[in-house]
């Protein structure tokens, strides 16, 4: 039996330590507030090489003396700003591609106004993406270019490749919603036709407000999104690097963007509810989006613990297209973790770059056979910070009538256009004043947590594992955090660096140091 006097002394000691900890956090609070207010994002140098309405096409300064022949056009979603792909220098998809020798372009959709309410998917795909692709093709002197689409941007990129296959050399789809036949997760269930009518939302608001979308995303994990992340922030407020990472993600989440009403209706009705893209029944502006045209190499990059676009909403698409060169790279991370975590940049993105490199120099070299591969968390000993989720998208447009706009885009399908013709398609733009961005309150840490027990049992882990909950102070949630950081055994935990693991998981360093000591005694 434990000495009761010792118990009282332990309680008193703990109270003193907590009081000292609170005093220290209070002392540094002004400094951390300044850090949050002044944090920088999207710092990779770029220039605007094309504009249309609110859209801007960014071209990034090269990082190598020579670049691969075929450039990469990055297509992001219509919700949130695209700098999630360039959040900070050491965790930037843009910089990783540049350092691998690629010529990189990225579409910044801008913020739609009420005048853009009638913009449809056909406008984004057959006008905006096509115009940008033509600019990149002309600047690079390539008939066909690489396209990398992320989230809803991946869905639209697949549509574009089906409509303009001659302009796409290689297609990479990252966390793209492509197949919704029952495996699309919570959002597919909530968006089902019997429960949800997108027209009611767009008729009420015109454009769908970012704040409206934020509530839905937050409700997917209300505790993590509204409680846990702030507790972790408090626990780690003394770690300036942690605070900087937290501030960058919060800024991105806070800068949500409204979605053009008609595009939102089409995406929910045609993609989620009726699964038309996967069933090869989708039409844009009267033209069949025929996925049997997707014969170019296709890479799917999926996140094992993606709660927004689960792997089941992406992977089956490869079996529905005729391409003889398809591959799936599945990584143990979440929807946003694949773009911002240090582990993703250490383990996943070198493979993505290699895939593009093999297919981006001169004529088509030997193409690897179709297949898939999964990156295992235990394969690496590089720790990183996994931050958390979100998206759908934003854009820009014109005051032209939908009839004139539809006729204009369909008449030019498949044609190569000069600079003058492309510029002409962007004339008549109005309303440059951006809409107010919404706030997306989603926990950045939830990306690297397992979605549920089923996700854990399905994970591709081959190494022998230990039950981390046997350690004092480690519950199931903390065990899942350690798992997502690649800690599967007591030996791995005993050898871990406390500071790196704290950054990776968002757990306070003092807790981790205690667990490391316990693991070392086993």
Question: Could you characterize what this model shows?
Answer:
The chain has 522 residues and is of the alpha/beta class. The chain is built from 19 helices and 13 strands. It has helices spanning 4-38, 93-99, 121-140, 152-163, 185-190, 198-205, 210-219, 222-235, 240-254, 261-273, 337-340, 342-357, 402-411, 419-425, 453-458, 476-484, 490-494, 498-505, 509-520; strands at residues 46-52, 55-60, 72-75, 86-88, 91-92, 104-108, 145-150, 168-174, 283-284, 287-288, 298-303, 326-331, 371-375. Strands 1-2-6-3-7-8-11-12-13 form a nine-stranded mixed beta sheet, with helices on both faces. Strands 4-5 form a two-stranded antiparallel sheet. A two-stranded antiparallel sheet has the order 9-10. A hairpin with a 2-residue loop joins β1 (46-52) and β2 (55-60). α3 (121-140) crosses α4 (152-163) and α18 (498-505) packs across α19. It is globular and about 85 Å long. It starts with a helix and ends with a helix.
Q: What is the gist of this entry?
A:
This protein is α/β, with parallel strands linked by helices. It has helices spanning 4-38, 93-99, 121-140, 152-163, 185-190, 198-205, 210-219, 222-235, 240-254, 261-273, 337-340, 342-357, 402-411, 419-425, 453-458, 476-484, 490-494, 498-505, 509-520, and strands spanning 46-52, 55-60, 72-75, 86-88, 91-92, 104-108, 145-150, 168-174, 283-284, 287-288, 298-303, 326-331, 371-375.
């Amino acid at each position: 039996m434990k000495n009761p006097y010792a118990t009282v002394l332990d309680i008193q000691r703990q109270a003193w330590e907590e009081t000292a900890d609170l005093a220290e956090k209070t002392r540094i609070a002004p400094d951390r507030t300044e850090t949050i207010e002044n944090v920088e994002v999207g710092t990779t140098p770029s220039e605007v090489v094309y504009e249309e309405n609110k859209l801007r096409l960014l071209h990034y300064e090269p990082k190598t003396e020579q670049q691969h022949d075929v450039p990469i056009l990055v297509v992001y979603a219509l919700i949130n700003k695209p700098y999630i792909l360039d959040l900070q220098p050491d965790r930037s998809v843009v910089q990783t591609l540049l350092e691998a020798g690629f010529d990189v372009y990225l579409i910044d959709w801008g913020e739609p106004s009420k005048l853009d309410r009638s913009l449809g998917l056909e406008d984004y795909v057959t006008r905006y993406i096509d115009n940008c692709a033509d600019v990149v093709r002309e600047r690079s002197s390539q008939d066909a270019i690489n396209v990398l689409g992320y989230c809803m941007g991946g869905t639209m990129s697949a549509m574009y490749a089906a409509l303009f296959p001659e302009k796409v050399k290689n297609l990479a789809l990252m966390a793209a919603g492509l197949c919704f036949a029952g495996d699309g997760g919570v959002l597919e269930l909530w968006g089902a036709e019997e429960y949800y009518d997108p027209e009611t939302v767009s008729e009420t608001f015109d454009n769908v407000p970012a704040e409206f979308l934020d509530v839905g995303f937050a409700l997917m994990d209300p505790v993590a999104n509204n409680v846990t992340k702030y507790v972790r922030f408090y626990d780690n407020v003394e770690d300036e690097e942690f605070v900087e990472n937290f501030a960058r993600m919060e800024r991105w989440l806070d800068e949500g963007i409204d979605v053009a009403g008609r595009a939102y209706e089409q995406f929910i009705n045609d993609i989620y509810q009726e699964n038309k893209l996967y069933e090869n029944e989708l039409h844009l502006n009267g033209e069949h989006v025929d996925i049997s045209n997707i014969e170019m190499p296709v890479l799917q990059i999926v996140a094992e613990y993606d709660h927004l676009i689960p792997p089941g909403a992406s992977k089956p698409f490869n079996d529905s297209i005729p391409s003889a060169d398809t591959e799936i790279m599945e990584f143990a991370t979440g929807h946003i973790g694949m773009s911002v975590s240090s582990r993703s940049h250490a383990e996943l993105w070198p493979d993505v770059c290699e895939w593009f490199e093999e297919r981006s120099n001169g004529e088509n070299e030997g193409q690897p056979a179709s297949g898939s591969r999964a990156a295992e968390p235990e394969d690496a000993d590089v720790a990183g910070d996994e931050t958390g989720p979100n998206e759908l998208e934003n854009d820009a447009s014109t005051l032209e009538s939908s009839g004139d706009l539809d006729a204009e885009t369909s008449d030019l399908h498949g044609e190569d256009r000069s600079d003058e013709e492309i510029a002409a398609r962007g004339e008549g733009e109005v309303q440059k004043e951006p809409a107010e961005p919404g706030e997306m309150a989603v926990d950045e840490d939830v990306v690297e947590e397992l979605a549920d027990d089923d996700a854990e049992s399905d994970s591709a882990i081959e190494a022998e594992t230990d039950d981390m909950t046997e350690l004092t102070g480690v519950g199931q949630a903390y065990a899942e955090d350690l798992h997502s950081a690649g800690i599967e055994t007591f030996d791995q935990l005993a050898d871990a660096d406390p500071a790196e693991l704290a950054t990776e998981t968002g757990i306070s360093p003092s807790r981790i140091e205690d667990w490391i000591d316990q693991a070392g005694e086993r």
